[in-house]
Amino acid sequence: MLYIATGYIWADVMAMTPDRLLRNLDWNLLHTFVTIVDEGSITAAAHKLAYSQPSVSNALKRLEDSLGTVLLVRKKGTFTLTHKGRMVYEYATSANTILVQMADQFARQDAQLGGELAIQIASHIYNPPFDQSLKAFHADHPDVLITINTHPSKDILKHLMNREVNIGLSNMKSVHSALNFELIGYEEMGFYCGPGHPLFGKENASLDELGGLPYISFESDQPGEGLSDIAQLRASHRNWGRTVAISSNEEEIRRLIVTGLGFGALTVEGARAFVSQGLLWPININAPLPSCEVYLATPAATPLTEAEAHFVALLRQSSAEFMRSRFFSR
């Protein structure tokens, strides 16, 4: 800030400390700035906020003055963010997410927990603790709408990093610091064929007998992805049959196998009922079956809503009890 007095220019040498900045910062000005950027113009922001255009322009100027920096460069009805402007926008949008969630929690603190619990899961995942947690959560919070969508594991992690969802069940994890991963179980995979397949009804089959037979693959049946154990088994046997169909959904993989397009991998639990009905046959390849780890993935920095936090707590407890009884009981 510059002062002009008796012909001399005096510089304000007082350093802007974090405490001073926080005391002087007006959240309403930050909210107006975020709206300007989101709406693409001061005029559109004024319409969205139901303010006059001069009021919005003045709010922007006051924010720039309080921060001591230019945030937007305006030219002929358009603007570009400065480097500091981009920084302020990113911090302000993150703060807004937290404040909105805080306001929502305070508004609900005396009411029955409601809202929505959104979860993304790989379609083939079988995890008893997850099922138990869903049942317990619904019993405790019947007014919460539960939505579950299926995606390949790599897409679930991408959606979590993009803040599109806060809870994911995945067969893979990444080293990305923005996400937390907790092992909540394992699932056993097996190979199956449908009626009319050359191996249907055969008690024992060697890997060599799969040579040249059409194969139906999960989209994540690739090295480094959710079903990489299956991909490794395939890669170790060069005579593995060619892939004739691909899907990211276990239901469609099972449909393709049952209809006779080829053989493929399914979770043992997911196939059990169809085996008992005579629609699927487990191919015993006399080799260790591939297994997949199941992870609970959540964002590291974004706070969970109250509903999400309750469900995650239930899932952690249920998973710990299940793993203890399954692998460590005497």
Keywords:
about 325 residues; alpha/beta; Arc Repressor Mutant, subunit A; D-Maltodextrin-Binding Protein, domain 2; 9-stranded mixed beta sheet; two-stranded antiparallel sheet; 11 helices; disordered N terminus
Q: What structural category characterises the helix and strand content? A: alpha/beta
Q: What is the string of helix and strand elements?
A: EEHHHHEEHEHEHEEEHEHEHEEH
Report low-confidence residues grouped into runs of 5 or more. Answer: 1-15
Give the termini separation. Answer: 73 Å
CATH architecture of the largest domain: 3-Layer(aba) Sandwich
The major sheet is characterized as: 9 strands, mixed
Radius of gyration, in Å, reads: 28 Å
- Helix count from the secondary structure assignment: 11
- CATH fold descriptor of the largest domain: D-Maltodextrin-Binding Protein, domain 2
Helical content stands at: 40-55%
Strand fraction equals 15-25%
Number of domains: 2
CATH class category label of the largest domain: Alpha Beta
Based on Cα principal axes, name the global outline: elongated
List how many beta strands DSSP finds.
13
Average pLDDT taken over every residue: 82
